[in-house]
TrEMBL record:
Keyword Zinc in annotation: yes
Protein name: CENP-V/GFA domain-containing protein
Family from the record: Belongs to the Gfa family.
Keywords, comma-separated and alphabetical: Lyase, Metal-binding, Zinc
Ranges where the CENP-V/GFA domain occurs: 4-124
Higher taxonomy: Eukaryota, Fungi, Dikarya, Ascomycota, Pezizomycotina
GO molecular function, one term: metal ion binding
InterPro entries: CENP-V/GFA (IPR006913), Mss4-like_sf (IPR011057)
Length: 146
């Protein structure tokens, strides 16, 4: 897959990665809803060491996760755009928000999994072809299974 690039709204922080994401996930948890002021987030999961960040980010730490483990949101300190998330829930991984990707980023990475559907907006239908989990997927499920 071709490299992907993106930026925050004001352009102060740019990101790139040149790897095939393990999975594209829609998350309906209340934390993601609050962080985006919307019904869900869509993210590609990649190895953190494959993500290149140009510019300074700030980090917000949240303990309000389904797992009870800390989640870290990395955002632009100028415009507040959340670029990616990391967490103790999956050490060494980054959840890059597809909305910050340039070009066809939103269309290029088709979600295959929806998590935390128990918090999904009642008016929102599940996406065709996705595996839907009311909470998190089982720990034994790997991206190769999805």
């Amino acid at each position: 897959m071709a490299p992907a690039a993106g930026s925050c709204s004001c352009g102060a922080v740019k990101i790139t990665f040149d790897t095939t994401p393990e999975v594209t996930v829609i998350c309906h948890c209340t934390q993601c809803q609050k962080m985006t002021s919307g019904p869900f987030t869509t993210s590609v999961i990649i190895e953190l060491d494959k993500l290149k960040v140009d510019g300074e980010t700030k980090t917000y730490t949240s303990m309000k996760t389904g797992s009870g483990l800390p989640s870290y949101s990395h955002f632009c300190p100028v415009c507040g755009t959340m670029l990616y998330g990391t967490g103790d829930w999956s050490p060494g991984k980054a959840a890059v928000r597809t909305g910050v990707l340039d070009g066809d980023g939103l269309s290029r990475y088709v979600p295959s999994v929806e998590i935390n559907a128990e918090s999904k907006a009642k008016w929102l239908a599940s996406q065709e072809g996705t595996m839907v989990f009311q909470k998190k997927p089982p720990a034994a499920l790997t991206p190769r299974d999805i």
